[in-house]
Amino acid sequence: GENVEQHPSTLSVQEGDSAVIKCTYSDSASNYFPWYKQELGKRPQLIIDIRSNVGEKKDQRIAVTLNKTAKHFSLHITETQPEDSAVYFCAGGLSGGYNKLIFGAGTRLAVHP
Amino acid sequence: GAGVSQSPSNKVTEKGKDVELRCDPISGHTALYWYRQSLGQGLEFLIYFQGNSAPDKSGLPSDRFSAERTGGSVSTLTIQRTQQEDSAVYLCASSANSPLHFGNGTRLTVT
User: Fold this and answer.
1) Could you give the CA distance from residue A111 to residue A19 in angstroms, rounded to a whole number?
2) B57 to chain A: closest CA residue
């Protein structure tokens, strides 16, 4: 089955700096890789996702890159703001709701003013 | 529109008691997932329902855990003879395609 590893477990940056979180996956059949943001005491919410037919996707200050050969994908947040502070989870699985999503262990991001 | 609804939001139970957690998915979503999140930890997959297919139970940690989904909609996660290590937030999510939409979870505390 799929196994997703996520690094680092904690990340501290100064406001305005960039933050990068990396994940690797084991199942070469996986083709869908979402990222979720979980603020303290709240539900995880989707912030961006990527499918294996593209190598990069961007949405304002957030971008995700995917390397299928190496089986790793990364989340990039530019111009970080204090409200970006949260736990971020990556996940891997099959698109279309045909299989379970396996999540990484999470990265606790702290953005200091 | 209505999101994924879970009840109760909090549940405190004594060790050895059975508990039932309920999830109402978003209307029309065919896939339903249960995850467990222990304090400060990641999202541990428990079980997955997709339409009328047999559920994927590969994440259930022991035979004390079971889940059902009636009529392709509401799901109930049952934990029998609860143990202190069962204390966690139990998150339900539903999906119509790929993105999962999570509920607010049920915080279970076993004393």
Assistant:
1) 9
2) A100
